[in-house]
Amino acid sequence: MITADPVSRSVRDVPAEGAAARERAPQPAAPVFYLPVGKECDILRHALTSQLPLMVKGPTGCGKTRFIQHMAQALGRPLVTVSCNEDTSATDLLGRHLLVGGETRWTDGPVTRAVREGAILYLDEIAEARADALVVIHSLSDHRRELFLDRTGETIHAPPEFMLIVSYNPGYQRSMRELKPSTRQRFIALNFDYPTEAQEITIVSKESGVPVVTAKQLVQIARKIRHLTELSLLESASTRLVVAAGKLINAGVPPRLACLTAIAEPLTDDGEARAAIRQVIDLTI
Ligand code: ADP
Known about the structure:
Layout: H1 19-24, H2 40-49, E1 54-57, H3 64-75, E2 79-83, H4 90-94, E3 95-100, E4 103-108, H5 110-117, E5 120-124, H6 131-141, E6 146-149, E7 154-157, E8 163-168, H7 170-173, H8 181-184, E9 188-191, H9 197-208, H10 212-227, H11 239-250, H12 255-267, H13 271-284
Parallel strand pairs: 1-8, 1-9, 2-5, 5-8
Antiparallel strand pairs: 3-4, 6-7
Adenosine-5'-diphosphate binds next to helix 3, helix 9 and helix 11.
């Protein structure tokens, strides 16, 4: 499935000054909480002004998407997000001719729209996309910064404020698709990993609403599971899972049940692995 989901408003959408404009003004979106874990905010700002495409690498659920959403909002830029999968084709990204009222009309895809708007374009899990989709971004991610629509013959030049960001999960794709050097080397890259213990406690407490003392226990569980390498989990306990456990606890679910449901079950179907995780949970919370 492919989704285009603008989460922040375009600067052009900001209403003009004046009482009438103020009446019509939409409620400002709530600030997107993101706790920086390093210099990533500075790097993204510099990449934007230097017109460099950016790759964010790291395991699932460690804050990559949240980081992009936060920065788009902080910079006041529209954000177009495309979740790539093995069916994502060049046509899905660029657009297609559609039959509208008996007429064939060209309809921009999310990438074309983002380039025309000068948005931040975030291609999530880029390595999952089909080869023809990856080729589309080549001319966008080098000095040309342009998009060629072969179906219409149009070449669109990206405005200076356009930025391309892709995410890539190296661990997950090890057994699946690797990103070719010819694609990777077009980007500067930020490596995301699980936050430090103190950072993760802050994130979990703030995101789920549990007190810091509970967040600390939840983070300890996640950190112990991450060290259980013998479980051969495809991916380990992410911050996302820890936040989910916190939310269940905050909603009134008993802590051990919350951890089993939000952490153990999503991680594995293997009986032995589940038992080991359950033991960690019982000993910690
Ligand atoms: P992914 O790396 O898969 O894109 P997300 O950005 O969706 O992961 O992060 C998953 C969840 O983890 C977020 O919804 C948020 O609750 C939490 N999270 C992880 N890291 C951070 C962070 N640095 N600041 C705030 N929330 C974070």
